[in-house]
Amino acid sequence: MPDIYWLRISCNPHEKIFAMEKEQEPAIRLLEKGGKGDTSLKIYKDRKWQLDGAVMVLCSKDNQDDFEMVHVQNMENDTCTLSEPLKKEHKKIKTALYPLMHGTADAQGICEIAVRSQADYLLLKADGQILENNH
Fold first, then answer.
1. pLDDT digit of tens for each residue in the chain (135 aa)?
2. What span, in angstroms and rounded, lies between the C-alpha atoms of 59 and 39?
3. 3-class DSSP state for residue 12?
4. Beta-carbon neighbour count of residue 109 at 10 Å?
5. CA distance 134 to 86
6. In a designed cystine with 11, which of 3, 15, 73, 78 is the match (CB 3.0 to 4.6 A)?
7. Contact yes or no for 60/95 (Cβ under 8 A)
């Protein structure tokens, strides 16, 4: 079991912050490419995932700095309906959805999120703006 490290982030009071561990295996692979403007993604999932309402990162295994945050509105069969259209095209090969951990800041603007202590991670605001990239 990996060691857990608590990230302590200063941000706006009650702001939601997201973290993605970069070394994790892809959780969910695409069955077909995601085109710019698409509002759904066809996916292959080898485990039973509950994705309704999930916020995830869609990115290539080859370049995890080129990503897009997606908000899954609901999941039916092998199709995720997204809350907003994709901002760019995502190839099928080596592209996957990765889960995000998240936390909400307290009234003083402090947010804590648990990650593996040896992991490279990316911290994001709810709009996808990068707060920290520790690689």
1. 568 888 899 999 999 999 988 777 767 889 999 999 999 999 987 667 778 898 999 988 777 778 899 999 998 888 999 999 999 999 999 888 888 889 999 999 999 998 877 778 888 998 888 888 876
2. 16
3. coil
4. 13
5. 26
6. 15
7. yes
